[in-house]
Amino acid sequence: MELTTGAILRRITETPLSTAAHKLATIILDGIAWKDGYNGLERGTAAFTLAHLAEKMGVSRQHLTALLVELAASGLALVRWKPNGKFAPWLFRFGGHEAADAPPDVVSASGDTSLSRDSKNKTIFAGRIDIDAGSNVYRTPWADLIKAAKASLACWNVDTQVIWERFLAFNRARGNAAVPAGFLLGFMRRWRALPETKVKGAVHVEPKRAATLKEQELQRLISAAPSKNWQFHASDLCRLIGKAAYDARVIRVAEQFGCARFAAILAVHGYAVIASEISR
Fold this sequence. Notes:
Blueprint: H1 5-14, H2 19-30, E1 46-48, H3 50-57, H4 61-73, E2 78-81, E3 90-94, H5 97-101, H6 104-107, E4 116-119, E5 122-125, E6 128-130, H7 142-149, H8 160-173, E7 178-180, H9 182-189, H10 213-223, H11 230-241, H12 243-257, H13 261-274
Helix pairs in contact: 1-2, 2-4, 10-13, 11-12, 11-13, 12-13
């Protein structure tokens, strides 16, 4: 679909839709950015929260969802995605018959130069990606685009094939068979290194010292009584043996194990649980 107001408006009027869906399509059209970077959007993209759309339409969220499904299934092929987190607006773009009807081998053809546009050193991904098209990125049209886009992103030093494989795995795990090409750029922008790929620091970490028998015994006593209930345990034990005897036990345990008072309190409670003086 040609990205002009007139072209999309003509397609909206020519597409058989319900009256409410026509209205929703024109509202989305009215919010489309026609210049890259306008309101932080790519050309041909609109941004709305569902609450805002529902308010402008005067319908419920449930009815709005049904209208969006109608537009997505129509010849307008409306696609929406949320690349910037849970509370960010949804991004919308009209697709059209060309993108919706193209078979997978055409969408992924290596000679297709319409999948991206370069403007002022900014690579824009367009079209759709078939997740099952192939695992070798160099047999798809996306290798050069990934290489160009990653230069200014956190994944600049990650192999193009690795980026592609993680993108495919990410979408397969979510049951996506095909996604807008913009998803790939968004995925790269939010790149996080896996633990095994992070560069190891040069700081030497001393191995943990093995716990002594005394420390092991203290830990055994502490774990016998859940620490989240320590105040209830203290109250029950004081009621049973008296406050003075309770304090004496705490002091004795602190001296025996050389630990802080709170650790000694937890150990006293654990010993009382083991001795069936109080319950867990």
